[in-house]
Structure formats: C-alpha cells, structure tokens
C-alpha cells in the first residue's frame, strides 16, 4: 500500500468510523423537509384540537385527537422520507462503507428530532382533554413508527430509479397512495380506527405491528449493497464462471 | 465541421419560420396536459376514484340528486393526484437542472407557467369524463331524481383547483415535500371544515363554514334527501372556480408582475370573497319553511298510484321507486287468501329529517316532527308504511324488501303494527312500572298504564308469526336470500362454553342466561333501515326457523295449506307447535333438550328456560302481541 | 485462478469472462471478456455501447447476470472480497453527484471517511494530496456549488485517487475539461498508470491514443476489438483516402484544414491512401451506428 491512511479492519474501528461520519452526514442531510413537516404538524395539531366548546361539553373528543395526531404522523413521515436523499449515492457506491450503515447513521440522526417533535405534539393534542380515560399514545407512536419507516423504505427503494438518489420525491406520493389504499381495507382489517374504544382498535394495532415489521424488512432489503450478486438470473444466461462466448471478434 | 452538420444548420431556420407565429403557451399546455393525464400518480388515482364511487353507491338504489354530490367525493383522489403531478411537472425543470436550458429559449418563464396552468384543463377533462361515466353507470340501475349540473361540474372544478394549487406551489415552494404536504393539509382542512366545525351544534344546523371546504357532503350527519338541504351549489362552484383562477394568478405573479395577471388575480380574489361569504350563510327561515312544507303537506309534492289494492305515494322525484315497492309488496298479498287481504295497506313515502336543514320548529304540529324524538306512546305516525328516501341495491335491496314485507305480512295476519295497536294490560303496566327507576316512576305512570300504547310486543310462539315470516320471506328472490342470510347470522342451535359460574350459553348471537330470550334481533331492526320507527313486532327465533323450513317447500303448496287453515293459523291463540303439527314440520329441539344434551346442570337449565319460556320474567317490558 | 494477481500487484488485476447484463429487455452487456494488468486500458464505444455498465461492474456497484469477474485477484460477488476490492479501488462515475454545500476539501474528506480513513490528521493529509494531484489545492476551500463544471469533475477525480488505489476506474474523465486540464489529466493518469491498473472510458480517441497501452472497442454490449491503439488504427488501413472533393463512395467525408477531403469507406482503386488514425479505425469498427450518430 502506497499511502498509509487506510484503517485496519478492526471491530472497534467501526465506532470510530461512525463517529467520524456523524458531522459530515449532519451537513449532508436535507433537514428542511423534516423541520418543515414538524412545523406544519404543530400548526395542524394545534388548530384541529382547539376546543371552542365549554369544558363541561367538549366538542373535541378522543377521535379528533387521534385523527389530528395521525395526520401529524403522516406529515412527519413525509418530511422524514427525504433524509435518505443522497446526491452522492452513485459517486460513493463503490466505497467500503456499506449503504445500510450510511443510511442507519442518517436515520439515527433524524430519530431524536422525530422523537422530540412527537413528544411535544402529544401533549399539544391533549391540552384541552378532560377525558379521564387513558389516551392510546403508545398505539399512535406505533403508527408513527410504521408510517415513518414505510416512508424511508419507499424512499430507499425509489432511490435507485429516481435521478441523483432523490427517493424522497417518489416517497411522498407513494406513501400517500399507501395511506389512501389502507382506507379501503375491509372493516375487520381496518388500520385507521378512529375511536380508541372501538373493539377493532386492538386488532388494528396488531396489524400495525405487522406493517412496522414489513416496513423494516423493506427498508433493510432496499439498503442492501447494490453490488451484491443478483439473485435473479436470466434463464438463458450462462453459468457464472463460464464465458457465454468469446468477447473479441 | 462535417458537411452533414453544415447542411443541417442551413435548413434549421426554415423550420423555425414555419411555426414561430403561434404562441408557445398552447403547444406547451398540450404537451404538459398529455404528460399530466398520463402521469403515474394521476393514472394510479383513477382506480381510487372508481372504487370510491362504486363503494359509496354500491348498496343504494341510485338517486341522481344525491349521487351527483358523491361524484365530487369520488374525484378527490384524482384532485390530490393532479395536485401532486402538477407540482412535480412544474418543478421538473428545477429538479432536473434544465432551468438554464429553458431560459435560453424564446418562451418566458411566465409562458411556461401559463402552459402548466392551462394543462390542468386536460386533468379537468379527465375528471369530467369520469363524472359522465359515473352517471352513465347509474343510468343503467333505474335511478330516480335529477342531477344538478352544478354538482356534477363541482368535482372537475375541484380537480382544476388542485392542479392550479400544485402549479402555484411549484412557483413559490419548489421543494418536493410541498406537494404531499399540501395534499395532507388540504385533506385535514376538508375534515376540519366539514366535520369538526359542526361539532357541538344541532344536527339540523351544521356550521355553514363547511362550505369553504372543496367538497361538501349532503349532510354532516344522517341521511337527509337533497330536497331537505339547502346547497348553494352555484355559489360554491363560483367559489372553487375563482379560487382556481386566484391560485393561477398567484402562480403567474411569481415570474413577472403584469397588469393583466394582477387584474385577473384581483378579480378572482373579489369573487372568492363574494362567493365565499354568500355560500357560508346558514339557510334562511324562508328556505327552511319551504323545505318543511314538503313534509308538512306531503300530498302537494307526492304522486300516488294504486296497485293490487295497495296505495303507493312517493315524492315526485322518487316516483320510480313505486315499482320497486310494489314488486316487494304484491307477492306477499298474492299469497293471502283474497277475502282475507287487508284493504288498507298503504305505502306513503316520508323523508328523513335528521341532518337536514329543516328544524323541529318548522315542523311543529306535523307527524314529521316526531323524527326529532319519536315517542311511541304519544306520537301517532299514521297507518301507512312510510319508507324514507333510501332503498337498497343488490343484497341490500333484498333486506329493504324484507323490511317492508314484514310489516305488510304482519298486517295481513292480524299482528299489531304500530304502538297504538299494542295496549298494555293493568298487570303489564304494573310490572313495567315496578322495574322503572323509582325517581322516574311517577312521571312514567302518566304514559304507562292500562290501555296505554306500547312500542313493541313479542310474537314468539304464535302460529301467525310463522305465517307472516313465510309470507315476507317468500316474496322475491331478494327477500328469500336476505331472510336466509339473517338466519345464518343468528343460528338456532345453543352453544355452551365454560363451566360452573363461567358457563356461557348462547343461541346464535344472544347470551341466553342474561338476555330475554330467543328473539331474532336483526329482523326486528330491519324497518329502521327505511327510517320506519313505529313497527312493533319482535320475532321469535324458533318461529323464524320454522318459516325457513317452509321456504324449502313449494310456495304453492304452503300457500294452499295456509289458505285452508287461514283462520286457525292467524288466530292469536294458535301456537307455533300447533302449526308445526298441522303442516307436518320437523320439530326443532327445545332449548331444554339442547342444554341437557350439552351437559348443562339442571339447576342452570331451569333458570335459563324460565327466562325463555317466561319472557316477561326476564324483561317485563316485553309484552305478547295480541 | 492461476496466473491472476494475488492482490499484491501482480499481472492480471482485472479479468472478466463472459459477462452478461440486462436491464429489463435491454441487453447492456453480451458476453464481454477482457483482461487488464498494470497500465491504462481505454474503453471506446458509441453511446449505449455498454461502457458505463461495464465500469459499474468493475467498480463493484453492479453485479453481472452471468459471467465471472475477478478484480485484484478477488471475486466481487463474495461480500468479504468485495469489501477488500473496494478498499483498493478508486472510481469516478460519468455523472458524479456532490453535496453542493460542502467545500471541495470537505467533500473529498467525507469520501475519505467512507473509505474508512478514520485517523483525522492522516486523512486530511491524504485529502490534501488527492486535491493537489487533481490541481485543486487553490480551490479546496470553495463550496462545490461555486465551482465550474470542469472543477467539479476534478473534485470527482480527486475523490477517486484517495488511498492511492490499485485499481482506478474513470468514466468519461475528460468530458467538460478544457484543453489545458485535459493535458494535465493525461500527465497525471499517465504517471499513475505506471504502477497500477486504470480503466478509462472515453469518447476521445486522442486520449486513448495518447494514454492507453490497451484499447477495447465496444458496441451494443459486445467487445469488437481488443488490442493496442495502433491495432485500432490498422483496421482502417486502406480505407482512408484523400481527394479534392467528397467521394460519393465514402461512408463519411470531411474537408480538412488543407482544403482536401478525407474520405472513409471502401477506397476506389488508385485512390490516394492516407495514414489511418485510431479515429478512422474506430469509425469503421462501430459501423453504421457510428455513422448515423456522427450524422
């Protein structure tokens, strides 16, 4: 080796490596979309859960709060879908740092923003609640996680087909399409149950868990190394290792 | 330089001269319009539109004056898609770095924006095609009513608005996030304006601010007919159209402030303000009372026909439904011996007030006022069967036919029909009062006394109930399927799970050791589908299953047997067991037998059976039909 | 595989055999085989010939559908081998992407981190070296968005030189460079090619003639010729002639600076034959397609 700058292939080096990656990744990431989405989510939750009725006869029930937080979750997911956009994806695809690690660093950097936003949105939605029944914050957080990871998964999957790795451009419409399609599921498989007291609420959130797992799996598959040997082979292609025909003629 | 290249350069100006006289805006609009309607997002939204429209109209006989509004709902996915695609289209040059290339052409940025704006007309045309297709689809399903052209154009206009918003956004906020966020924000705004602003208000006085939403449903709650709601559809169309022009103006002003654009934008803004404020007015007293008159004096607005001895009256727009009602009722009465046919069967349509713009005050004194709070013991809704402004389609038509036929059949076999036909005995009144909350007892005693009307009675165990159920079920193929489906959802067989104190005994959906007994709840609820609230008969499950056995026999045979024993079978004192013997039906195992077979301890069987055999012991408010 | 490099700078650092790659219905590569050792290999071919696909396979970004790839003595279809190859690989894509808010230094430094260079002082030293090699030392503090197109390509070149790779893959590296930059590039690549393998894809036949020891001419996903630049020129021997006008039998002709016409095609008997160039050979090799594109 001519210039001795390459790191050793050590386990401990990975942590150091990730540490070095943080600062440039923060600068490389597109923060405007998630921040804009967070701001809009605050406005939307504030307006939608504002109760003009007297506290003795509130007009904003748990269904409205669920709806407001759900719309906020969709907005946050839309904003987050842009964090994987990387115009250098093709330029840096040949580098030893795997794609999944680069994406994991990006997700890890965006997660605190998302968590803090959500942690502020929930009390904002609940500010005028006089309902003594517990509010299903956990279930809605599950929905947020599933929607966000789906947005990332769609963004990651689209990145290969959209110029300059801008998967976020395709992710927004596709995510909205998926959300719209989910509204057409049969009643017993409904994902978007509004009333926490609805007997379908628990079943719906069991389904949300599956949706989350499917999203994680899709994100992982979409973040595999593009250079790995393709599993798909053409039936007429030659067996690997044997030339199909002589190259020069 | 090659000779060939030089040749090309010489010939180029000639081609340019041929086309330069024409404005590039329309050519650009044509190209962009084609791209827009072929955009995967737009194409992908069409199945959503189709599925939405089919779903919302699937179970209803079409009413064009209601379904025209639903075309607007069905087009919302297309509108959302057009917003996204228009935004992506108008930001394409920025995203793909061709802005510099375009700036070097003779077409200005403003002309390009104008081209994008005009291209939305292609999407609006696509929306209009979908509306026409929807109406053509409904036209094949024997619709009633007449669509409002303003409502039909409203959906395509919302599509136009969405596209213009997409282009305007593209000019002021190019980020790819803008389109999806705008769609979510507009969806949230739609929900907020239409549903949330009316929370806490009376059903008949929804917040008129909902008219600022792109699409406004016929009602915030309930199922009122078009005739009873005030829809400023022309003003709303003007509002949406002017908003679209305003959005277009805002898009154009981004590039260069031109006098024409400023004037157009200002004019559009003025129309937005005028149309917006006119449409958000609550209906006037005159409008409300004009609508109330439709209910107070139905005879002025209805058309009546007599068929097979039955009088049918429908509001003129719904006259086509008389055929549907007659098709259900005629086969019931055809199986009743001619001399026993009731001569006073009448089907007179009413309209659903709930959620309409008619208030209780306007209806004071009319029977329609009871819809605001029907009191079976004081309100007399008249003798006619009164289906409202809905009728099912497909499987649901069978259920609605069955609902109406059960009432006709009950009337034919002499079962009570209305609360006024059920009079409490002294003992029954005493028992009911005994289980009434002591604090309410004194007040309740004013309406619960010997001879007072009562809102339901049980026909369980009476032979005439089996006759009535068979008459209703056999009427049409739809009623028979609906009847069998209702029974399939509520089996007669007793199931026993658990043991000891946790023993759970069920017959179909009913928990036997808690509830009053083996009644077929779904059947008695059927008339509510047609907003008929004053039918009183509750049907026994065993009777229903015997009627199902009869459905397995040739109708003519059953009809002949009924004719022969009509007087006996329709006597209130003839039991179902007697009918079973008389017609040779297969006796159903009693609940006692089923429980014994299931190994239920005899003490428990005793208490369960006591509930079953003595319904009044379990629920004193259930009085037998006399 | 016998005879191949063991990873320490032996002879055959790139060996492809029977490589096939399809994108839906398009056959991008159709049985491509080639070997390359130390030195510079030039890939010539018209647009859509499959050059970029081939380079992406060499850069381990793309896996072939069939055929065998050995790079630096390793098999890139195995993830461990692929990682080792990537540690010794430099790649400059045809259309490099940048974080435009980064300075040239920051961008190359970011790529260095992705190249697992975690020791900051040593990494910065390496980044400066790569920038210097690419002639960017004076603009290293400038934001990429403020750089010209040619400068940006040099930034892309700089990142490919990080870590002094044993295998350097350059896709259209001279596109958009001014004549001086091109000459500097030639100088740099020529020096680098003395002790490593460089694969260069280009449309510039002069670059190939000036730099490459070996040329591969491709068309429609197939290799048409592999040899030295003079072998390409030899293909046109006897097919290039000078005349006072455009010869109707010529498939392509142009007027030279001297005012005579250089005709390419089947030369008529007695024609004044000219010394063929690599460009002439290339044009004849790629045939009708090249002619139609030139037109």
Give a structural overview.
The complex is a heterotrimer of chains A (249), B (626) and C (295). With 249 residues, chain A is an all-alpha fold. Chain A is 57% helix and 0% strand. Chain A has one domain. Chain A is built from seven helices and no strands. With 626 residues, chain B is mainly alpha-helical. In chain B, 55% of the residues lie in helices and 5% in strands. Chain B is built from 27 helices and nine strands. Chain B has helices spanning 3-19, 24-38, 40-58, 64-74, 76-90, 92-95, 99-103, 109-139, 149-172, 178-194, 233-255, 259-279, 285-296, 321-334, 395-412, 426-434, 438-444, 463-473, 477-488, 521-525, 541-551, 555-564, 566-569, 576-583, 591-597, 602-613, 615-618, and strands at 302-307, 310-315, 346-348, 457-458, 494-497, 504-507, 510-511, 537-538, 623-624. In chain B, the strands form three sheets. Chain B has a three-stranded mixed sheet with strand order 1-2-3, covered by helices on one side. The termini of chain B are far apart. Residues 1-19 and 513-517 of chain B have low confidence and may be disordered. Chain C is of the alpha/beta class. The longest helix of chain C has 17 residues, at 278-294. In chain C, strands 5-6-7-3-8-9 form a six-stranded mixed sheet, sandwiched between helices. Chain C is built from nine helices and 13 strands. At the A-C interface, helix 1 of A face strand 1, strand 2, strand 4, helix 2 and helix 3 of C.
């Amino acid at each position: 080796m001519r210039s001795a700058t390459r790191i050793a292939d050590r386990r401990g080096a990975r942590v150091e490596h990730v540490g070095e990656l943080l600062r440039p990744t923060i600068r490389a990431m597109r923060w405007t979309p998630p921040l804009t989405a967070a701001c809009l989510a605050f406005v939307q939750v504030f307006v939608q859960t504002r109760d003009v009725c007297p506290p003795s006869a509130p007009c904003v029930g748990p269904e409205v709060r669920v709806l407001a937080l759900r719309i906020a979750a969709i907005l946050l997911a839309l904003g987050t879908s842009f964090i994987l956009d990387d115009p250098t994806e093709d330029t840096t695809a040949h580098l030893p740092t795997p794609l999944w690690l680069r994406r994991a660093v990006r997700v890890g950097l965006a997660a605190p923003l998302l968590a803090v936003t959500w942690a502020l949105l929930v009390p904002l939605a609940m500010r005028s609640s006089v309902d003594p029944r517990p509010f299903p914050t956990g279930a809605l957080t599950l929905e947020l996680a599933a929607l966000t990871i789906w947005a990332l998964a769609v963004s990651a999957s689209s990145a290969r087909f959209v110029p300059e790795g801008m998967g976020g451009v395709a992710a927004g419409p596709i995510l909205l399409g998926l959300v719209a399609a989910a509204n057409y599921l049969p009643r017993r498989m409904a994902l978007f149950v509004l009333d926490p007291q609805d007997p379908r609420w628990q079943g719906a959130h069991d389904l949300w868990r599956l949706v989350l797992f499917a999203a994680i799996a899709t994100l992982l598959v979409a973040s595999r190394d593009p250079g790995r040997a393709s599993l798909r082979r053409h039936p007429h292609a030659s067996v690997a290792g044997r030339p199909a025909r002589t190259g020069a003629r | 330089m090659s000779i060939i290249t030089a040749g090309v350069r010489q010939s180029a100006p000639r081609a340019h001269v041929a086309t330069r006289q024409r404005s590039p805006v329309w050519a650009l609009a044509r190209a962009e319009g084609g791209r827009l309607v072929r955009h995967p997002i737009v194409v992908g939204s069409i199945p959503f539109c189709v599925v939405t429209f089919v779903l919302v109209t699937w179970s209803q006989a079409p009413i064009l004056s209601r379904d025209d509004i639903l075309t607007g709902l069905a087009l919302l996915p297309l509108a959302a898609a057009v917003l996204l695609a228009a935004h992506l289209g108008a930001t394409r040059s920025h995203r793909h770095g061709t802005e510099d290339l375009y700036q070097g052409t003779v077409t200005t940025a403003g002309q390009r924006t104008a081209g994008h704006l005009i291209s939305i007309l292609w999407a609006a045309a696509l929306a209009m095609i979908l509306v026409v297709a929807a109406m053509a689809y409904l036209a094949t399903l024997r619709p009633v009513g007449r669509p409002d052209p303003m409502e039909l154009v409203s959906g395509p206009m919302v599509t136009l608005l969405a596209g213009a918003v997409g282009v305007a956004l593209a000019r002021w906020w190019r980020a790819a996030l803008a389109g999806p966020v705008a769609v979510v924000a507009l969806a949230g705004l739609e929900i907020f304006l239409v549903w949330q602003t009316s929370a806490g208000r009376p059903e008949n006085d929804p917040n008129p601010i909902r008219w600022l939403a792109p699409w406004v449903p016929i009602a915030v709650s309930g199922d009122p007919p078009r005739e009873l709601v005030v829809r400023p559809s022309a003003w709303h169309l003007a509002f949406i159209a002017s908003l679209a022009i305003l959005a277009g103006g805002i898009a154009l002003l981004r590039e260069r402030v031109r006098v024409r654009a400023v004037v157009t934008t200002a004019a559009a803004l003025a129309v937005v303000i005028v149309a917006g404020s006119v449409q958000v007015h609550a209906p006037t007293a005159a409008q409300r009372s004009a609508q109330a008159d439709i209910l107070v004096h139905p005879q002025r607005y209805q058309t009546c026909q007599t068929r097979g001895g039955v009088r049918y009256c429908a509001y003129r727009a719904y006259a086509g439904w008389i055929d549907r009602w007659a098709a259900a009722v005629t086969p019931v009465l055809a199986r009743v011996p001619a001399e026993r046919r009731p001569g006073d069967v009448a089907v007179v349509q009413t309209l659903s007030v709930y959620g309409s713009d008619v208030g209780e005050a306007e209806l004071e004194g009319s029977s329609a006022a009871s819809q605001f709070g029907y009191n079976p013991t004081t309100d007399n809704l008249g003798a006619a069967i009164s289906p409202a402004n809905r009728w099912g389609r497909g499987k649901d038509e069978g259920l609605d036919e069955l609902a109406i036929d059960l009432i006709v059949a009950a009337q034919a076999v002499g079962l009570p029909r209305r609360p006024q036909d059920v009079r409490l005995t002294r003992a029954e009144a005493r028992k009911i009062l005994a289980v009434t909350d002591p604090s309410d007892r004194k007040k309740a005693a004013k309406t619960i006394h010997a001879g007072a009307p009562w809102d339901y009675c049980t026909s369980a165990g009476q032979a005439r109930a089996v006759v009535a159920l068979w008459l209703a079920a056999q009427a049409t193929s739809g009623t028979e399927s609906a009847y069998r489906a209702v029974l399939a959802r509520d089996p007669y067989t007793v199931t026993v799970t658990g043991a000891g104190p946790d023993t759970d005994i069920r017959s179909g959906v009913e928990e036997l050791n808690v509830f009053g007994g083996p009644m077929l709840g779904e059947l008695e609820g059927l008339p509510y589908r047609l907003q008929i609230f004053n039918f009183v008969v509750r049907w026994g499950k065993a009777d229903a299953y015997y009627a199902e056995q009869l459905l397995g026999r040739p109708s003519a045979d059953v009809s002949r047997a009924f004719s022969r024993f009509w007087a006996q079978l329709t006597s209130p004192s003839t039991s179902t067991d007697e009918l079973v013997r008389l017609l040779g039906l297969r006796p159903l195992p009693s609940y006692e037998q089923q429980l014994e077979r299931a190994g239920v301890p005899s003490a428990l069987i005793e208490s369960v059976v006591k509930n079953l055999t003595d319904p009044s012991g379990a629920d004193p408010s259930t009085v037998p039909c006399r | 595989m016998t005879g191949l490099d063991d990873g320490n700078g032996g002879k055959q650092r790139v060996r492809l055999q029977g490589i096939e790659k399809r994108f839906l219905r398009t056959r991008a590569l159709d049985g491509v085989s080639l070997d390359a050792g130390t030195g510079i290999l030039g890939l010539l071919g018209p647009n859509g010939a499959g050059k970029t696909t081939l380079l992406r396979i060499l850069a381990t970004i793309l896996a072939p559908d069939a055929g065998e790839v050995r790079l630096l003595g390793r098999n890139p279809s195995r993830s461990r081998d692929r990682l080792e190859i990537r540690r010794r690989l430099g790649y400059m894509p045809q259309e490099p992407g940048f974080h435009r808010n980064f300075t040239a230094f920051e961008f190359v430094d970011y790529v260095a981190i992705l190249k697992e260079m975690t020791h900051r002082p040593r990494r910065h030293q390496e980044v400066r070296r790569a920038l210097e090699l690419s002639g960017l030392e004076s603009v290293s503090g400038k934001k990429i968005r403020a750089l010209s197109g040619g400068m940006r390509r040099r930034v892309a070149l700089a990142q490919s030189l990080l870590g002094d790779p044993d295998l350097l893959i350059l896709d259209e590296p001279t596109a958009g460079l001014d004549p001086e930059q091109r000459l500097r590039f030639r100088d740099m690549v020529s020096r680098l090619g003395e002790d490593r393998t460089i694969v260069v894809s280009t449309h510039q036949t002069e670059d190939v003639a000036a730099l490459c020891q070996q040329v591969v001419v491709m068309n429609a996903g197939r290799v048409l010729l592999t040899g030295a630049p003079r072998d390409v020129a030899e293909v046109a021997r006897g097919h290039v002639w000078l005349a006072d006008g455009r010869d109707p039998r010529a498939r392509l002709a142009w007027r030279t600076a001297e005012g005579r016409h250089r005709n390419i095609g089947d030369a008529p008997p007695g024609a004044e034959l000219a010394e063929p160039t690599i460009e002439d050979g290339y044009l004849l090799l790629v045939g009708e397609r090249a002619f139609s594109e030139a037109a």
